[in-house]
Amino acid sequence: MPSIVQVKVNTVQHTSQVSKAGTDLNYVEITGFDSTNNKGFKKRFFATKKDGTATKNAETADSLSQDDWAEFTLDDTSYHNVQTLKKINQPAGMSAPSQASPESGNPKGTSKGGGGYKSNPEKEKAIAKSVALKAAVTFYAGNQEVGADDIIEMSYKFVDFLAPEAAVDGEVREVTEHGNVIVNPTQEEDEDIPF
């Protein structure tokens, strides 16, 4: 059974792509906030028919702008294809976060809640370290002569590339003349230890 979703529109974009058969395929892509399911929304559908004329859904999409409301009827396949699209007034009791864009003066393209990007330095550092370690493991895959220390050293090189500001707190990193990173954890020496 088809489902109906009510969406606060953020963007309407036309794109084209060449198919494997060499024909141009023209699409309309709509992004926004699905207030029916309380989540982000992104759907792409054909903009033109085989004869080159615009589809009814594409014509409706062209009449939409940011913060307009639209009602989509989606089929019950796993792809949830767009069957119908119509412009509607804001439904009673429905709300959606603001979808401000960089052009409207919102810095760095961050959104006040509509799926925009919000910087989180600690999370970015953790992601950079994770990606770097995975890259180092992949880099040395199959090399039996490499130990864990070599992999860790290489991961620091990758972290330096991905996010130089992602240095681990409390570590001093030195780079040798050959570009190797030496990690020396800084620790306060305990004078009570006799060795």
What does this structure look like?
The protein has 195 residues and is of the alpha+beta class. It folds into two domains: 89 residues, OB fold (Dihydrolipoamide Acetyltransferase, E2P) (Beta Barrel), CATH 2.40.50; 65 residues, no CATH class. The protein is built from three helices and seven strands, in the order βββαββααββ. The strands form two sheets. Strands 3-2-1-4-5 form a five-stranded antiparallel β-sheet, with helices on one face. Strands 6-7 form a two-stranded antiparallel ribbon. Helix 2 packs across helix 3. The longest helix is centred in the middle third of the chain and has 19 residues. The protein is elongated.
Secondary structure: elements and pairs:
Elements lengths: L2 E16 L5 E11 L4 E8 L9 H7 L6 E6 L7 E7 L32 H19 L8 H15 L8 E5 L5 E5 L10
Antiparallel strand pairs: 1-2, 1-4, 2-3, 4-5, 6-7
Helix pairs in contact: 2-3
Helix content: 10-25%
In DSSP terms (H or I, runs of 4 or more residues), the helix count works out at 3
Strand coverage percent: 25-35%
How would you spell out the order of helices and strands? EEEHEEHHEE
Summarize the structure.
The chain has 195 residues and is α+β, with helices and mostly antiparallel strands.
Question: Can you give keywords for this protein?
Answer:
single chain, 195 residues, alpha+beta, OB fold (Dihydrolipoamide Acetyltransferase, E2P), 2 domains, five-stranded antiparallel beta sheet, two-stranded antiparallel sheet, 30% strand, elongated
